[in-house]
């Protein structure tokens, strides 16, 4: 009898999700005689047993489409808002899987999804995950799909901001996404030739950034592009949160990781709007007019890059093979140009941040970029 596998997308959407769903579905159906049931809106659809059959008609024409045909949400199996109450829906999820006679579950998601998938694996499900996120912050994979597209979008925006910044002799501060990691800011900053890049991993001193801009002015350059990762922190803010970060790095179990991340999130929420303050301070310190552009969800929307289509297809077909071989309990990852399986218990909770001694940081500094350190 053909196997039946559930599939869902969870967390923030990103380009390449449909390419991955298509690859899993086509390879499953054509090569391995496995059928797919797509659950809607992340773990919520699984808890509420809301699904659609992913037959070949559903999989056709979606390779180039952004977002996810399944819908997504940030719902967690063990803490879901149902009828105004927070409920543990793990039992309901297990019932859905039993009712539908699912042989396995595939979860496409970021760091939070890896942790939730591990919870479901521990509850007895056969789970495989794929790494997706524009933040590129999932541990044990060299890259996650969605990232390349987001870097491309942010780079194009920086290119466009360059010409207006030059024309007006202005500082333009560009806020990019990335959550607590600076990968997107770093790569888009390098690709777009930014003059300063502020990332969460290197706490900045605004005076140092202003100094680098003043030096540019002395050399006759009266404009600057400053890329700021949404999670960037000043040295002062870093001191205020470093104890929490140390706890976060040391934490091993998902419950404490989540509670620490909530506290960090609350701190960040209090400091929301700090990029406008960066722009204002730089204007005051350099005497150059400044403007702020927040790229926001533009970075997550639209068609995936060629790289993300290829990468998502590669991961998707590897996933179909792993389903066929009953190789469960893993995230499929890219390491040294190979797709490999990494146990979920290894991946879950391991955030990949930019190491301050990463070769790209050195390279960026050598082409004159300031990190405000
Ligand atoms: O994780 C992807 C991401 O886009 C982050 O870069 C960003 O902080 C977050 O999601 C935004 O989430 P939401 O779409 O829920 O506002």
Q: How many domains comprise the coordinates?
A: 2
Computed structural class: alpha/beta
Query: Total strand count, please?
Result: 13
CA-based gyration radius: 22 Å
Compute the separation of the termini in Å: 61 Å
Keywords:
binds 6-O-phosphono-beta-D-fructofuranose, single chain, 13 strands, 7-stranded mixed beta sheet, Rossmann fold, 2 domains, 4-stranded parallel beta sheet, 17% strand, 373 residues, alpha/beta
Structure description:
With 373 residues, the protein is an alpha/beta fold. The chain folds into two domains: 3-145 and 304-335, Rossmann fold (3-Layer(aba) Sandwich), CATH 3.40.50.450; 150-301 and 355-366, Rossmann fold (3-Layer(aba) Sandwich), CATH 3.40.50.460. It is built from 14 helices and 13 strands. It has helices at 17-32, 43-47, 56-59, 90-99, 111-122, 147-168, 183-191, 206-218, 235-250, 254-270, 274-286, 306-324, 344-347, 359-366, and strands at 3-9, 34-39, 51-53, 80-82, 85-87, 104-109, 127-131, 171-176, 196-198, 224-229, 290-294, 330-335, 338-343. Helix 6 crosses helix 7 (183-191) and helix 9 runs antiparallel to helix 10. It is elongated and about 75 Å long. The N and C termini lie far apart (61 Å). The relative contact order is 0.17. The mean pLDDT is 96. Bound molecules: 6-O-phosphono-beta-D-fructofuranose (F6P).
How are the SSEs ordered, and which strands pair?
Blueprint (H helix, E strand, L loop, with lengths): L2 E7 L7 H16 L1 E6 L3 H5 L3 E3 L2 H4 L20 E3 L2 E3 L2 H10 L4 E6 L1 H12 L4 E5 L15 H22 L2 E6 L6 H9 L4 E3 L7 H13 L5 E6 L5 H16 L3 H17 L3 H13 L3 E5 L11 H19 L5 E6 L2 E6 H4 L11 H8 L7
Parallel strand pairs: 1-2, 1-6, 6-7, 7-12, 8-10, 8-11, 9-10
Antiparallel strand pairs: 2-3, 4-5, 12-13
The protein binds 6-O-phosphono-beta-D-fructofuranose.
